[in-house]
Amino acid sequence: MGKYQNFYAIETLNDVEKRNKKNKILIIFLLLVIFSILLFLIVNVNSNIKKLKQAKEYEKQVLEFKEKYEKEELRKKQEEEQKKQARLPRITEQGKENFRTIFHSDKKRAFLTFDDGPSTVTHKILDTLDEKGVKATFFILGVNAEKNKELVNQMYEKGHYIANHGYSHVYSSIYSSPQAVLDEYNKTNDIIKEAIKQPEFNSYLFRFPGGFYGGKYANIKKEANEMLKQNDISNIDWNCLTGDSETSSPTPEYVIKRLKETSKGKNSLVVLMHDAQAKKVTAEMLPQIIDYLSSEGYEFKTFYDIFI
């Protein structure tokens, strides 16, 4: 009996050893599983941390870009506002004095002015002015500006001075009374404001159709001029011309001849020309006109240089 007891005891010990071995294996397996899980978690956490850092860096870059973009947009808006304000004529005491003495200057200067437009002729004139790097002043008619608002805006955006020549150019209408002159000025100014999308715009500069001095309506003009002055509006004629309205079909030779005759001996020129539909000779001769004045030492100005 004792012999069998030892046998069963040995069996029991073997079972324990096997069970212990299995437990060890199970424990090792569980440890490996736990280690794998921990390793996975660590790797995943590190990956998430890396992604989080990347996300934060990306967010930082986005914020920096946004801030930079907003600053750049603000700068552009400020520049546009400055340009806008620079193109809005201002009346100052210095400007009034400059205007009063416009025909007198120690240095040679020329104000190229165009009446009666805009029209299809104006396109070629603007192209030539661009090519030559010259700015000019356009005394526009409201009736033509209404039909060519994009062209009016183009003049303005290119930095040319837009002045006022009334609405109709019909003498019996504009000179029916002093108030009629002011009304035509205001009507044309409203058209300009709409065309250039600048509700504050006022050129403060008028040229009487046919000129200010003399003629059938001299008294009306004189009274109208006083009314214009009360509204800070100045009128300007010219002291030099190309003769493009003196005959129905002026030749290129005639235009240059009249320019030379009327500019002789003068330092400060306000040059009368026209950009109405029929004035193709003016557009054709403008390069030669500019070249001649340049060769004579004239510097080109606009009324922005007067109403500083």
Short recap of the structure:
By secondary structure, the protein is of the alpha/beta class.
Give an account of the 3D structure.
With 308 residues, the chain is α/β, with parallel strands linked by helices. It contains ten helices and eight strands. Strands 1, 2, 3, 6, 7 and 8 form a six-stranded parallel sheet that branches. It has a two-stranded parallel sheet with strand order 4-5. Helix 5 crosses helix 7 and helix 9 packs across helix 10. The longest helix is centred in the N-terminal third of the chain and has 85 residues. It is rod-shaped, with a radius of gyration of 42 Å. The mean pLDDT is 91.
Q: What is the mean predicted local confidence, pLDDT?
A: 91
Largest sheet: 6 strands, parallel
Work out the strand percent: 5-15%
Shape: rod-shaped
End-to-end distance: 131 Å
Cα-atom Rg, whole angstroms?
42 Å
Detail the topology: elements first, then pairings.
Blueprint: H1 2-86, H2 93-100, E1 109-115, H3 120-132, E2 137-140, H4 142-147, H5 149-157, E3 161-164, H6 171-174, H7 178-196, E4 205-206, H8 218-230, E5 234-235, E6 240-241, H9 252-263, E7 268-274, H10 280-295, E8 299-301
Parallel strand pairs: 1-2, 1-7, 1-8, 2-3, 4-5, 6-7
Helix pairs in contact: 3-10, 5-7, 7-8, 9-10
